[in-house]
Amino acid sequence: MFNSTPNKLTVLKVAVAATFVGALALSPLAFAQEDEHGKDAAASKEVTGEVVDMMCYVDHNAMGEKHGQSCGAKCIRSGGPAGIVSEGKAYLVVGEHKPMNDELAGYCGKTITLKGKMADRGGIAMIENAEIVKK
Question: What is the pTM of this model?
Fold first, then answer.
């Protein structure tokens, strides 16, 4: 009377439907991870400004070549955060998941162009995956 074995076609339909629904549910996670760490060419921008030692800049607005080549470069080489000030806005500058202090210390107090991904959170602006643009 009752067929005790499930219909193989029904089991296959359910398996295919479950796989499809699971793939749809997980696909936004894959895109979100790519956006978080992927290199998005559209988000990459260039900023031209003065390289600063962020500690002295934020504490007492220290800028200029005189400060940059003495105190500023020393602070950056010692591990202090490096930044760039462009049109009155300061950006923390980092390379690809690491500081760029060795590359930026010699430019402290000078105007350069950086290219990278812009990020802004909690009032802190940052250029990440930054590269020095050679002109």
Answer: 0.69
Give yes or no for a contact between 96 and 40, defined as CB atoms under 8 angstroms apart.
no
User: Measured between alpha carbons, how far is residue 130 from residues 60, 83, 94, 116 in Å?
Assistant: 25, 11, 6, 4
Separation in Å, CA 50 to CA 114, 121, 130:
10, 22, 15
| Sequence ranges of the domains in the chain | 42-132
Measured CA to CA in angstroms, residue 42 lies from 58, 121, 124 at distances of: 30, 19, 21
Distance CA 9, CA 6 (A): 9
Right CATH number for 42-132 from 1.10.760, 2.40.50, 1.10.287, 3.50.40? 2.40.50
pLDDT in single tens digits along all 135 residues of the chain: 455 555 666 766 665 555 555 555 655 544 444 445 554 444 789 999 999 999 999 999 999 999 999 999 999 999 999 999 999 999 999 999 899 999 999 999 999 999 999 999 999 999 999 999 987
